Amino acid sequence: MGRFERERAFLKTDFEMLKGVKTGAASGVPQPEAEKPAEEGQLLITLPKPSKDVVTKANVFDCIGDRESVRKYTDEALTLEELSYLLWSTQGVRKITDAGRIMRTVPSAGGTNTFETYIFVRKVNGLAQGIYRYQPFEHRLVFLKEVEDIAALIDEMTMAERQPFVPYFAGKASVIFAWSTVPYRAEWKFDVQAHKKILIDVGHVCQNLYLAGESLNAGVCAIGIYNQNLMDQLLDLDGDEEMVIYLASAGRKAE
Ligand SMILES: Cc1cc2nc3c(=O)[nH]c(=O)nc-3n(C[C@H](O)[C@H](O)[C@H](O)COP(=O)(O)O)c2cc1C
After folding, report:
1. Which residue, by CA, sits nearest to atom 21 of ligand 1?
2. Residue nearest atom 10 of ligand 1, based on CA coordinates
3. Which residue range forms the structural domain that includes residue 173?
């Protein structure tokens, strides 16, 4: 039992731990940037404006009631409009208040939103197979790299042979979402109380992907089984200031 203790403590909220701690925010350290900038020379792809037109099931009651993890996909591509809607649903910026608060389509503790969204595109109309990063403020993609056999890479990333329900399912999806966290974006405000909140926040993000997917008749599956080192290495993340924490697949549902 002993070895669970530290991990269980992590599940609790303990603001007493912050007594005497001067957070970055309280010390006047500038707030970390909410989005990684594009680098000079990177290809930028402006996404179509998120539109209701892609929705085929608009009833929230039905979307919640029918949501399930879908691991069987047809080979039909998702459209760029559908991808745009899924990205907006998971991290889209709704508005920035006069006080500078960034309001998104998902809740986040203290509005800290520590995530970056990377997508591994296998089959989306109008996009080359490869790896992209989403920039929610501009609602655009930054093209990071082309991948020749992306299905094989996705299978390797998601440890396909060890997937407990349907081995090798993720490589058949149209797109894989990979969420990283930049922990300091929350540590700046919550210090040692940040990390539990980050994991709660990412659950909201993935649930919105499930529900938005359901409204398109696209199937989604959360993926917690993945190769951490490989993911961080593929995305050039140092695994400390930024690391991948969660994946999800999306594709047209096979009946
Ligand atoms: C944090 C998390 C990690 C998950 N990881 C995987 C995974 O690696 N592979 C998989 O096939 N399903 C995964 N799932 C999906 C669960 O297996 C699924 O939600 C559960 O069996 C209940 O089924 P339902 O989503 O259809 O209601 C994950 C779900 C969550 C919330």
Report:
1. 69
2. 223
3. 40-252
What's the pLDDT score for residue 1? 64
Contact between 98 and 105 (Cβ < 8 Å)? no
* Residue 136: both structure tokens together: 């929610």
Q: Is residue 121 part of a domain?
A: yes
Mean pLDDT of the chain, nearest integer: 97
**Model confidence over 149-163: pLDDT tens digits?**
999 999 999 999 999
CB of residue 225 inside a 6 A radius of ligand 1: yes
Q: Which amino acid is at 176?
A: I
Instruction: Tell me which residue of 127, 113, 205 sits closest to 213, measured CA to CA.
Output: 205
Q: Residue 3 above 90 pLDDT?
A: no
Task: For 96-115, give one letter per residue: b (16+ CB within 10 A) or e.
Answer: eeeeeebebbbebbeebbbb
Nearest CA to ligand 1 atom 29: 222
Residue 131 lies inside a defined structural domain of this protein: yes
CATH number at residue 136: 3.40.109.10
Looking at the structure of the chain, the number of domains it has is: 1
Q: Is any ligand 1 atom within 6 A of the Cβ of residue 84?
A: no
pLDDT for position 241: 98
The verdict on the CB of residue 165 being under 6 Å from ligand 1 is: yes
Residues contacting 131, CB < 8 A, separation 6+: 118, 119, 120, 121, 144, 145, 147, 234, 235
Say if CB 60 and CB 221 are below 8 A apart. Answer: no
Structure tokens at 47: 């996404």
- CA separation for the pair 210, 219 (Å, rounded): 8
Q: Is residue 30 part of a domain?
A: no
Distance 208 CA to ligand 1 centre (A): 15
Instruction: Give a yes or no: residue 179 inside a domain.
Output: yes
